[in-house]
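From the shared-data thread, chain only:
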Amino acid sequence: QDTFFTPEMMTKNAFENVKEKGLLHKIVLLLNRVHPNSSFSFWLASCIESFLRGFHVPHQIFVAHTGMLHKLVKQIVGNEITRFNNIQISYDLLGEIVKFNKHNILFLENLCVNYGWVNSLPEHALCNVVDSNVFFRSLWLSFERFDYNYLCQVFFFKRNFLVTIVFRNKDLIKNKKKSKISDKSPKSAKLSVKVALNGLVYL
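Structure, as tokens:
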């Protein structure tokens, strides 16, 4: 595991020398070049997120190893993304990259361990719990699926720091549910926040 996830493997585009680039590859390359707060970034990330929603494992691994996984986490923990829509789509895309994919979850954990993001990524996700709820749900569903298939016993997913963070911060998530919904908020905003947070409370 440690030998496979080398710094170069985690940060570089493993497919940069491929001559015949497909549409997904071209979109990823373009997304890597645009500013993270631009409208182009939002729409390009939305395209990739929609494509991965069917969690086809080879495509998830492909996207992760184009440098996209490293770039997303780096932008999140570095506060490089400030626009609301761009923050949310970044977490959504992150969730689709790792959902039901044990390789990419291990990839994400190695990234955080090697670059000192073990605490900062969960902290940023918890500070933006409404935007990051899809990411949390993807992790939770993945661990439940792995556990059902007895993969946790092989890959030690129950010890995974991401799982620990979710369980350790249940109370914080519940408190955020109360603080995020104020009496002055519009009814539609209250409803959307409740829907997002209620799912996390039952993790």
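Confidence is low (pLDDT under 50) at residues 180-203.
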